[in-house]
Each structure stands twice: as C-alpha cells, then as structure tokens.
Amino acid sequence: MGKVKIGLVQMSCSSDKQENLRKASLRIREAAGQGAQIICLQELFTSLYFCDVEDYDQFKLAEPVPGPSTELMSELAAELKVVIIASLFEKRAQGIYHNTTAVIDADGSYLGKYRKMHIPDDPAYYEKFYFTPGDLGYKIFHTRFAKIGVLICWDQWYPEAARITVLMGAEILFYPTAIGWATSQDDATNTEQYGAWQTIQRSHAVANGVHVVSVNRVGVEQNGAMRFWGGSFIANPLGTVLFQASHDREETVSFEIDTDKTDSYRTHWPFLRDRRIDSYQPITKRYIDGD
How many other CB atoms are found less than 10 A from the CB of residue 263? Predict the structure, then answer.
C-alpha cells in the first residue's frame, strides 16, 4: 500500500500503570476511529518517566515482552485491525532490563521487538542505571500496511541508526520518545533544544528518502522539574513537517502519507545512489586520532 494513515498518540502519564494502559487504549480507539492504520505510542507510555532518579524500586515497573501489555495491545489491534507500536520497560531476566518497543500487526499477531541501542546518561535521564543496551540489532517489521523501522528516543540523534534501518528496507521510521525541558530553563533555550531535536530527525528523512514519525509525551513530571515538550510530528522525505502537535496538550491524530512517493524523492535526490560505501570504513571507529 502506498497511502497509509498514521496515528500519533501524544499523552500525559500518571503513576498508575493500569490507568495509563486504559488511557492509551482509548486513544488508540480514537485514532482508529479517525482511520489510522499504524498507531504509535510514546516511549514508556505505561508509567511516568522514571529515569530521573536512580531508584531500585522502579525495576518493579518492568514486565516481559511479550507479556501482559502486549497481550492487551494484541487484542486491541485484532479488534480494530490496526498496527500498534508500543514502547515498554522489558524485564528480560533477573537483573537484565531493556527499553523495548513491541510491534503488533493488524491481525493481533506479535511481530517482534526492538531494543533501544543508544542509552543516555544525563541529568534527569539516568537510563544507563536501568537499561542494558539493545542486542537485537536494528530491525524492520513487515506489517499489513508498510515495512516500518522503529528506533527509540536517544537513537534519534544518530544518523547511523536511521541509515541502517532504511537500508534494511524500512519505508517509514518511527521514533517513540520521552524528552522534555527543565522547567527552570528560559524560552530561548527551550526553542533551541526543540529545534535541534526536530532538525536531526527531519535530516534522517531527507538523507534516507523516507517519512519520519516522532511521538513524544506531554505533561509536567519529576515533581514539577520537567515539562515534556510534546511536539510530535511527521516529516516527508524532503524534511517538510506535514503535521506537528502542540507542546502542552494531549492529542490523538490520524494523518495520511504516501510511501509510493519515496521513489520520486529518491530519483530526484539520489543520495542512496551516490553513497561511497568503499570510503566509509572509518565510521566504525570511536574516534580517528592523528595530526
């Protein structure tokens, strides 16, 4: 299918996991009611963003993937005949946890999962305390409506991740995300940070000739210290923002894109054709020392 309706669910979360699942389910139904065929939820949508502190009790939020939440999403996907992209805190084994996104096809079947590869460690984003880096590599998922690639939040700053996922055949890149502003920051800093975040993802769309979909949360968390900036958006293969959500409201949106146009974009802007793969060996080094 060329034309695909993308559903974005941008919402706030609470400390009540079941309430978050209930809200997300209602929003998925709302998106499906608008005609959405592939519906993406934000990063770690079943809880508050808990990585602001290093707290062993937070590991209790984790669950197997597949597990209870994917079972719920599978039932919903089968009923509504939609694809669901669900970001979860995965308990793989005792002492091994991942930041993981599961993909459910439109018949309710579990297609697999992607484990976040790039794990940040910044003030209020202490993810290295919780998450083992992904070891499944980059993934694509052959859904009923499109071949999709899923990357997660901090992955969005790395062009290598986007490139590899597209080279594997992804027609659309999805980025479930949880990123915000410190409430103590000034507006100019906020504007600059959001601009950098959106620009890097739009550049992935341009460089790879694909649509990019980024879904973020909203709301004030961390005892008032963090305001998640929302701003979920869809960009076309020339980086044009086709849709952008607000920074402070919950929104459920269905927006149609046309993946058949990818061929035209790539023909007129043949970045993939002109890649010099014979010259890229240095990219596998951490840094190139020398004069």
Answer: 12
